[in-house]
Write a structure and sequence with these properties.
Elements (H helix, E strand, L loop, with lengths): L1 H20 L9 E2 L6 E5 L2 E4 H8 L3 H7 L3 H31 L6 H16 L3 H10 L4 H21 L8 H10 L5 E2 L2 E10 L6 H16 L4 H8 L10 E6 L5 H7 L11 E3 L2 E11 L2 E2 L2 H30 L3 E4 L1
Parallel strand pairs: 1-10
Antiparallel strand pairs: 2-3, 2-10, 4-9, 5-6, 5-8, 7-8
């Protein structure tokens, strides 16, 4: 983390210029040079500093470096990320202000419980490790808790702007389905069960070939495939009667795939040798390829539309908060 932090500090000055000039960050706000105090933005009475942003950027510097093909691209990526962080910080302050201006609060008991749950989940209840983590971020416990409260407020306000599934009309769902039919294409699939015979200390390949023929004969004589799998199969699915579940065409080993999609449901294959193993496959059910019916994908469509509408509503709402607030960005 220390190395990443130093690296971020080294590139921050060069990247800030491109970040500040990037479309959308400055808008109509006044543009001034960052002073010795290292201020990157002011939103209402909240100052966003260079150090704050650097702490957010530092952990991602190695990842950004790895994805960059040149120093120019690296600086641009860092600049873009800085721009995103600064804007997110500005928006968070505006959302929190809106929440409080409406007279809303989060009960202290809920905040306390959330704080304790965080320590238990992230640090196994080790408060000493948690304190080290907070100090490494350059924060006090009070500041950390304030950030937690702000994150909860933002999450609450965002959820209020999302459209619920119940508000989406059947017509919208049908229109989305018709306009995106290619998304609902599914290849042929088969629900299969397998009996696996493995060559090793207990059986040679030739012995397994003989056993496989006997198993097929027993199945054809009326024994249940699941019972035969429990008795003879040597893989983890044997306890479940050889059930492997559903597979789309092309997902299985090519030899098994060819067999699975060339026989009818309810049938078994002849023994299939792959390396030193022998498989007997049963197709339990089959589904043809094609476009999934709307009822099969209705829930997915509902959530997709709700997410899209919610994002649009949220963005418009935040843009309105920006327009009526005092915001100044620095480069």
């Amino acid at each position: 983390m220390k190395t990443a932090f130093k690296t971020a500090a080294a590139v921050l000055s060069a990247a800030l210029a491109s970040a500040a000039c990037a479309q959308g960050l400055l808008g109509n706000a006044g543009l001034q040079e960052t002073g010795s105090n290292g201020i990157l933005a002011v939103v209402e009475d909240r100052v966003i500093t260079r150090d704050e942003v650097m702490r957010e950027v530092a952990p991602f510097i190695p990842q950004i470096r790895q994805k960059s093909l040149s120093e120019f691209e690296f600086n641009k990526r860092v600049g873009d990320y800085i721009r995103e962080i600064v804007q997110n910080m500005v928006d968070r302050e505006l959302i929190v202000k809106e929440f409080r201006d409406k007279g809303m609060t989060i009960p202290q008991s809920f905040l306390d419980s959330h704080f304790e749950d965080y320590i238990k989940k992230e640090f196994n209840g080790d408060r000493a490790e948690f304190i080290k983590f907070v100090q490494a971020q350059g924060k006090t416990i009070k500041q950390f808790r304030q950030d937690q409260e702000k994150d909860l407020i933002v999450g609450y306000m965002q959820s209020n702007k999302r459209q619920t599934v119940a508000e989406i009309s059947p017509k919208k769902i049908k229109d989305y389905y018709e306009a995106n039919k290619s998304k609902w294409y599914t290849p042929a699939s088969a629900k299969i069960s397998l009996i696996t015979l493995k060559t090793g200390r207990t059986a040679t390949l030739e012995e397994n070939r003989k056993l496989a023929k006997e198993i097929v004969a027993k199945y054809n004589a009326g024994e249940k495939f699941s019972d035969l799998a429990r008795k003879y199969s040597k893989d983890d699915s044997s306890a479940k009667g050889g059930e492997w579940g559903w597979y789309k065409k092309g997902e299985l080993n090519p030899l098994l795939d060819k067999q699975a999609f060339s026989i009818e449901a309810g049938k078994i294959t002849e023994p299939v040798e792959i390396g030193d193993m022998i498989f007997i496959l049963k197709v339990e059910e089959k589904k043809p390829d094609g476009i999934s019916p709307i009822d099969d994908v209705r829930e997915q469509i509902e959530w997709t539309i709700a997410e899209q509408n919610g994002r649009e509503t949220y963005n418009k709402w935040v843009e309105g908060l920006r327009k009526k607030a005092f915001i100044k960005y620095y480069k």
